[in-house]
């Protein structure tokens, strides 16, 4: 970059800004390329280890990659501008104070951030209002990006950064916060969280299945992508192999006398979450508060996007588009005793091979599976959930197509997806959330549903995603049990420690399928969170246990992520929830009902103000009837209230479903979904409640099934009568209009919609479906039909039209 002009304090000229932006783009692109080349090299040599896989699948892709890269262009440009301001004038200046409106416009356009943040135009019509979009854009028609994928997590309180803008607390070890230095997160993990695998209290009220639902629903709501680069942009430092603290590297330092790692010069790798466009110092460009924000790459809404994906591109990739049945794609190589598996991910065949073995040589190796969420392969319980809900969609689609053979594959798919969303919402709010936050918080935050409120922001709060909902990490048992039909330990497939089930999809295919895992989740208790037995060593000392790298520490990761995201401390959130703010050890002991724990916390943090909200929240005694304390009950309750009341497609909202459909939907249960999608026929009526076998177990014939007859579409439209039938066409009805789509190989010859008028007449004749237009009458050519190249031998050619026999 050229030096600054002498009058830079008044105006940073456009040539200078353009130079900074283009240099930033070159640096970011170079780092991305080197990261991509590094990943390709790993893929070519061997199956990836768990840490590699975790990073590979959390690497931003598609639309998320565009949003992340644009934000990193902007951040790198700002860094270069500030560096040069400091280099020339030896003083720190806020670059945004020096940039003109023209400079800001240049940065926004060239980096792509303006395009990422532009509000979309929402279609307004009967069908466009019937189904969610894949990315949930236009759920809120007043503010179309509220709750949509690849938008910033929302803030309920101002961010708390070391510099007030973007540097995490604890970045500068000597800096005081509220008068005290922050402890290393690994030290807090060692002294507060440590629990041996053998020293576990089990929850005799809630099942392991309850814990697994928590992860499942979490993956429906949020995912903050990390940087697209594994190294620093300016000097190429690899974050995986350094203790250097330079964005995106924010390594977890090791305290003296660590419980596992003896060399304090070693660090646990940690990558900062990617920034959101327009946040940080240049946030004023978009009317922001100038603090760094993080992206939620998922839709906020409870919409089962872990099955369907959160972009149209991914949604189409995991569908079966070869017919008009509305099904999800399934595995073509393996089945689970005749039931479907997810399709394999075709990125690389050896991604999830058995650790230490080549998938080309090991009979046990399989590729990774693909689903709507990138974390599908993370562990076997989660993978089993993905498999069951894939099957449930296809079961629903099959039944809906039987009831409505005139529906197209698209209509069948969307209706099944809509029903699945309702199932997820009902089970979560009726059966799961009350067990988490207790009845008092339910009455406060989630009383009976009234109506959709377009002024409620349904976006996922940063504090919820980064801290509050991570309470579930304290409910994870150390062992995944696999049980036979008699609910005894399976004679062939042994129980597995947690570190043995990460990224091992081959175990599902080669070791008995879904049923033994689901039985184990149902018939065993969750771990009970207690103040003296918090996080298992399986998660603290063996998370993604590796052969060549250090295993990670989930507790330390949670706290480091909280600092990375600028989450305010424990007392700030106590105040937010209208709770007392303890100032000293006596007051904190009163809140926690535990003097010893209060002393430990204040010996580390100095003041309750500095305690991470996750640590403080999980330390509180449970509310009556719940599994979290008052603070987390407040934060979780508020989030689920916003998700319900701010969702235009909430299942109880008027017009989303008919009255008879809502009545049918209310019969759903997790146990029924298990019955319909596994070979298990004897199970607890309430899957989240722990009952030792056979207490409370019933046959599937005793569990209510949702009657889908309410979805049978009446093929008459008042007052026009029966819908005109068109050869080779499907149709669906929305109010007084009928929309036609042609079968594969045919094309509409005019408009696709007719409308019934008040005089009992259709506004126009229905369209016709003609043979697909061909490029040539040569039978040797490939014909283009619906975007897919198919070979046909034409019977006759007429004006470049291919006539396909019935």
Going by CATH, the architecture of the domain at 716-802 would be: Ribbon
Biggest sheet, spatial arrangement of strands: 15-16-18
Strand count, sense and barrel status of the largest sheet are: 3 strands, antiparallel
What's the CATH H-level superfamily name of the domain at 716-802? Answer: Complement Module, domain 1
- Ranges with pLDDT <50 over ≥5 residues? 1-12, 355-361, 774-806
Report the CATH topology name of the domain at 716-802. Answer: Complement Module, domain 1
Please give the alpha-carbon distance between the first and last residues: 67 Å
Overall mean confidence score, pLDDT: 87
Given helix and strand content, the structural type is mainly alpha
* Number of distinct beta strands: 23
General form: globular
- The CATH class designation of the domain at 716-802 is Mainly Beta
Summarize the structure.
The protein is mainly alpha-helical and 806 residues long. It has 24 helices and 23 strands.
Top keywords for this entry?
single chain; two-stranded antiparallel sheet; globular; Complement Module, domain 1; disordered C terminus; 806 residues; 24 helices
Question: How would you explain this protein's 3D organization?
Answer:
With 806 residues, the protein is mainly alpha-helical. The protein has a domain at 716-802: Complement Module, domain 1 (Ribbon). The chain is 35% helix and 8% strand. The chain has 24 helices and 23 strands. Strands 15-16-18 form a three-stranded antiparallel β-sheet, with no helix packed on it. A two-stranded antiparallel ribbon has the order 1-6. Helix 1 runs parallel beside helix 5, helix 7 (185-193) packs across helix 17 (554-564) and helix 7 runs antiparallel to helix 20 (595-605). The longest helix has 37 residues, at 409-445. The protein is globular and about 80 Å long. It starts with 13 loop residues before the first helix and ends with a strand.
